[in-house]
Specification:
18 helices, 63% helix
């Protein structure tokens, strides 16, 4: 009803227009019978026939108006319905946390917002055009048939129950098959999306044949599921038509005997046959409506799963919704976290530390030790299972998500740019930034020089994901975007790994000069990237094994010493 209420006139006038068409369909055969019985056989002459035909023409024009109106209002209602539904699904997905997104594959979410919504749109359109027309025509034609010859109408007492049994059988068989087909569409979309996103990796490893095989498997599974579902439709219509034709033969036989005996006028038999056709066609329309409803219900359930997904993160119970990040003070108090809540191993295990406003803090450790997970707790991309994360002395769960994330800038390990110009991508940091501010941020990130080398400069169009710039250029653009935001907390997750050490040093100097009041967290694999930090956090297997300056850790932290020795000795060997 949420999606019907704004467009209720369309949902009301559409069916009403279809009733006009139904009334015309029921009246026309009676008028035709009157022409045959009274005008031709009864000898009432051309005047009577002309009057009846004029009435038939008016009725046909009204039917046309009703049909056009029904189709128009049905289209308006269904398209608006689906547009609003698709908007709400997208808005709900935008509010998902990473954990919520993990419940659905990307391809599945795309299918639900496109194919599944389209199935519902088609069903709503069909419903408005047939929901009153099919039963209206069935009832109207049945009444007229009985009024013409009640005994001959007894044929329907056999055919209608048989058709209803067939309808029940086809619906029962069709529903699970349509559901399976939608699942196969999910799998195919996921395969395509993964292949296109990672096409460079596929080509570099010459894995085209492997990817073709994956696609053929997914495509074959969808073909099989589609054929299984379509087989129901293939057998349904011929079966219904067989029963319809058998009913028609019975009517013609018994009706023909009555006409031959003189107990039934020819016009009445002709009209009776038309009414029988309408009755049986209305049952076939009802069958089609129910079959489409089974597919629409499968899609509706999948859409409902998204809309009813309980948000893993929300700010409904936030106690300080109006508070914003002002200083950048960060504190972790005995924080523990698991991605899979029923697993024994913890990604973070009893982590505690305090970072003062304006400090630069390096985070270093082996791959998979929990560094990215640790910093993801600050803007509340995940919530701690145990303990608490505080920003400016307030638990992050008490901030509104908008205010918290507005105060935090992140340059992620996987650098993401969007289709559009370089300037449009940089304006993600500040949509109201001037051209001068954009250039200053790019200069600080060491990006201005290569951007100006492009023919169109900052108006250069980037492909999806920034595919037409190098990895180092992409990193510098992402850093410029974060700098333009002027956050109180800046998180850099291995964000200079693709730039040379000299460029990295200039970027660090820009951070020091332009974001002196901001708290900076730098995750790095290169120890030279964090050696000058105010504090260095050393992590291993989800735990903090040491906190201090470079000199302090070199004296008392074994893990840090091993990282330093391995990297510096390798550096000397390379030299």
């Amino acid at each position: 009803m949420k999606y019907v209420r704004p467009y209720w006139p369309y949902f009301v006038f559409g069916p009403l227009c279809m009733i006009v068409e139904v009334v015309g369909e029921v009246v026309l055969p009676k008028l035709y019978a009157m022409i045959v019985n009274n005008g031709v056989e009864g000898g009432m002459g051309p005047g009577y026939i002309g009057w009846a035909m004029a009435f038939m023409i008016v009725t046909a024009l009204l039917m046309m108006a009703g049909g056009v109106g029904g189709a128009y209002f049905g289209a308006k209602a269904s398209v608006n319905f689906s547009a609003d539904l698709r908007r709400d699904i997208f808005a709900k997905v935008q509010s998902f946390s990473f954990a919520n997104i993990d419940h659905f594959q990307t391809g599945s979410l795309v299918t639900r917002m496109t194919n599944d919504v389209t199935q519902l749109q088609n069903f709503v359109n069909m419903l408005l055009r047939m929901a009153l027309r099919a039963p209206g025509m069935l009832i109207g034609a049945l009444i007229m048939a009985i009024s013409l010859n009640a005994r001959l109408a007894l044929v329907l007492a056999v055919s209608i129950p048989l058709m209803l049994l067939a309808l029940t059988f086809f619906i029962k068989k069709g529903f699970p098959r349509f559901k399976a087909m939608q699942t196969r569409i999910d799998a195919l979309n996921s395969t395509i999306e993964e292949n296109l996103t990672n096409v460079r990796v596929v080509k570099s490893f010459v894995r085209e044949d492997h990817e073709r095989g994956k696609f053929e498997t997914a495509n074959g599974n969808l073909k099989k599921a589609g054929l299984d579902a379509m087989n129901i439709m293939i057998f349904m219509q011929p079966a219904m038509m067989l029963m319809m034709n058998a009913t028609m033969l019975a009517v013609l036989y018994f009706g023909g005997v009555r006409v031959a005996n003189g107990t039934m006028p020819v016009g009445d038999l002709t009209a009776f046959v038309t009414y029988i056709t309408q009755i049986l066609m209305s049952l076939i329309m009802t069958t089609m409506l129910f079959m489409n409803s089974s597919r629409a219900m499968a899609s509706a359930r999948r859409i409902t799963e998204v809309l009813d997904e309980k948000l893993d993160l929300s700010d409904e119970s936030a106690a300080a919704k109006d508070k914003t990040v002002q200083q950048g003070d960060i504190e972790f108090r005995h924080v523990s976290f698991r991605y899979y809540k029923n697993s024994e191993g913890k990604v973070l295990d009893d982590v505690s530390f305090h970072i003062k406003p304006g400090q630069t803090v390096g985070i270093i450790g082996s791959t998979g030790c929990g560094k990215t997970t640790l910093v993801s707790m600050i803007p509340r991309l995940y919530d701690a299972d145990e303990g608490s994360v505080l920003v400016d002395g307030t638990d992050v769960r008490d901030y509104s998500l908008y205010n918290l994330r507005e105060g935090v800038g992140m340059v992620l390990q996987k650098n993401v740019l969007f289709s559009g110009s370089i300037e449009e991508n940089l304006r993600w940091g500040d949509e109201n930034a001037t051209e001068e501010q954009i250039r200053e941020a790019a200069q600080s990130a060491q990006a201005d020089a290569f951007v100006r080398s492009f023919t169109n400069g900052y108006d250069t169009e980037l492909g999806q994901g920034g595919v037409n710039v190098s990895g180092g250029q992409k990193q510098r653009l992402c850093i410029a975007r974060a700098l333009l935001k002027h956050p109180k907390i800046l998180i850099l997750d291995d964000s200079t790994s693709a730039v040379d050490t000299a460029t990295e040093a200039r970027i660090r100097e820009a951070f020091h000069n332009e974001l002196a009041d901001s708290t900076k967290l730098v995750i790095a694999q290169r120890i030279t990237s964090v050696m000058d930090a105010d504090q260095i956090i050393v992590m291993d297997d989800g735990r903090i094994t040491g906190i201090g300056t470079h000199d302090e850790l070199m004296k008392n932290n074994k893990e840090y010493q091993e990282i330093y020795d391995s990297q510096m000795s390798r550096k000397e060997e390379d030299a």
